[in-house]
Amino acid sequence: MKTNFLTLNVIAALLLGACSSDDTASVVVNNNEVTTTVDEDGTVNLSGIYSDDLTLDASTNYLLNGALIMDTGSTLTIPAGTTIKAIKTGVGAGTYIAVSEGATIIAEGTADNPIVLTSSESSPEAGDWGGLIILGDAPINSVTGNDTATSEIANLPYGGTDSEDNSGILKYVRIEYSGGSADGSSENNGLSLYGVGNGTTIEYVQTFEGKDDGIEFFGGTVNASYISVINAQDDSIDWTEGYTGTITNAYVQHGAEHDKAVEADGFNTDIGLIGNFYSSPTVTNLSIYGLGSIEDAGSEAIRLRVGTEGVFSNIYIQGYEEAFDLDDEQTGISVTSGNLSVTDVTFDDVITKLKNDTGADFTEADFISGDGNGTQTDYAIWGAGWTK
């Protein structure tokens, strides 16, 4: 069943009966398990578990006032130009959008009319709300076979055997002021991709001013391109649990509060390596801008650890004390076996190009080739118009 949810005609009809008082009034609309309210100004409040399709309208004001979870089999459609504002909530509440395993999101903005997920605060700050969570059926190395893991936020299942899992489309989507706590210990990322497969389209996505990670890959095979992360207070790009997709054309800019531009794990150390493979993505055309090697003492651009593999090519790193920091014996083995390498990289205002804390015996030349050959991703062109 498709629910063309609360477009302007429906809202107008509802509001005719809601405006008899000068006080703010609400109209209650029941949609299966969901109770939705429409304020007198036409703002639609969104939260709950949706088992039917949910189609939004770009001309409507939406307020996310809790967790919005799309159940298995449902589709969330967000047209170009739509803005969803999220209320600021304290620890324990959790305001986020989650697309369950077996559900689909179709969010196709344009450069001129991006989709914006943001805070409702008049003076927004990082961590005002949660973020966007997508869960799929692609392989992860924290389980085997058709077993599933459980997401840190919302306790939803993810992972499986379908490398081509299709969880939908994200295109020209900006996620702002995310990273709020869902409970006392778990923080949302701007965009969390749990076991998402390469049938899913992730293109032209920005996370801006997030309190936790910008975008994190929990296993899966999804390919992401034209990714912008500005002022993430934790890691900008993070992967773990056997992520094996591609990241192409990515731009990272650090603010005063930050951790790593890339933090990469071969598996989740809280769970252990259960599957028989490590994270092994391909990263191409990545530009990272820090605050300065002297100004930001101790800063690291890229931390590679717990056995991650990966192929990095055409990388530009500016303004860090350390560019690549490698930890863990298995990560060293990934280098010596040829499964972890960097080709064509330029270091600008970087003191230490490689820090080897793996215990493995390899040289900088064994890990890095084409020093000075990296060029910057053309962010001024592909990021124009839809990013902040």
Number of alpha- plus pi-helical segments = 4
Question: How much helix is in the residues?
Answer: under 10%
Radius of gyration: 21 Å
CATH topology: Pectate Lyase C-like
Q: Major β-sheet, in short?
A: 16 strands, parallel, barrel
Domain module tally: 1
Task: Count all strands and give the number.
Answer: 26
Mean pLDDT: 91
Shape: globular
The secondary structure category is: mainly beta
Poorly predicted runs are 1-32
Please provide the ordered H/E string of secondary-structure elements. Answer: HEEEEEEEEEEEEEEEEEEEEEEEEHEHEH
Major beta sheet, strand line-up = 5-7-10-14-16-18-20-22-24-23-21-19-17-15-11-8
Percent strand: 35-45%
Distance between the termini: 37 Å
What is the CATH first-level class name?
Answer: Mainly Beta
CATH architecture: 3 Solenoid
